[in-house]
Each structure stands twice: as structure tokens, then as C-alpha cells.
Amino acid sequence: MSMRIGVLSDTHLHRVSRDLRDILDHHLSQVDVVFHVGDYTSPVVVEFLSSKNFHGVYGNMDPIDIRAVLPEKKIVEISGFRFGLIHGWGSSAGLEEKVLGQFTDVDVIVYGHSHKPMNEVVQGVLLFNPGTASGYSSSGVHSIGMLECGDTVKGEIIDLD
Fold it and tell me: Where in the chain are the domains?
């Protein structure tokens, strides 16, 4: 039996917006778990997501009240796979190498920060960045991600625009 994980990052919201509700209703209503890998910017977004089977980490734009309830990074085990969750930091150049260095013995690293989607195996680890769901996008494209756990973990980037 497969497990589906909906993945968000970089929502940069000060309230629970209609767009966020639509994302959960239309794209994530059938998932088993929701990951958000930082830059919520408001604790009300964390509270809203917490009504689901939710795992999250804080990002560089998150205030102290979010950092008080969410870790900087964490490992989540689902269906025999180990997922490393982290936001990321600094320049987008070299971000993948930086996040790879933060975990050992994981199958997937889910990260954000760059607002650029990524779904690629590097050094035997699936690097998965859903892009930005509702924050600034240099390409003008907003996206979320979907991870499916079966015999392997497969990622999909879902374009919202």
C-alpha cells in the first residue's frame, strides 16, 4: 500500500489565504501526510496545517514563535523510508550540496529556500524541493510537490499556475 505525502514550502503568508485553502482542498485532500519545509511567516499557517498529519521545520524568514514550536531540521520515517526535512539557507548556488551535508542515512531530503523546484537523485538521495506555493517566484510559477512511497519514493512537482 502506497503513502502519499503533500509537500509545501515558502508560502510566505501572514494569514491562511484562500489560495492555501484551495491547495489543501484540491491538491492535498487525499494525502496521508503533509510536509512544509519552512517560511510560513505566520504561526496561524502552522496551526492550520497542524490539523492534518503534519511535519514541518522552520525557515530563515520565520519569526521566533514558529521557531519555538518547529525544529530547524528533522528526520521522519514513513513506509520504511527516511526523509530529512530542512529549509536551507544562504545563496541558491550550492544549496543542494549544503542540504546533502546536513543528513546521513536518509533516502530523501525535502528542502525549500530557493523557490526553485527540484526532483532529482544526487549521490543516491532524492533531493526534493517543491518550489514556492505562494511566495515570490522569479519564473512566475508557483508549485507544490507530491511524494509517493511504494517500492521506491517518487516525486512529482505540481504547477499551480
Answer: 3-159
Predicted TM-score (pTM) of this structure: 0.96
Measure the CA–CA gap between 58 and 66, rounded to whole angstroms: 7
Are 67 and 58 in contact by the 8 Å Cβ rule? The answer is: yes
The contacts of residue 82 (CB under 8 Å, 6+ apart) are: 75, 76, 105, 106, 107, 108
- Class (C level, CATH) for 3-159: alpha beta
Q: What is the pLDDT of residues 81-95, one digit of tens each?
A: 999 999 999 999 999
CA distances 118 to 70, 74, 86, 87, 115, Å, are 23, 19, 14, 13, 10
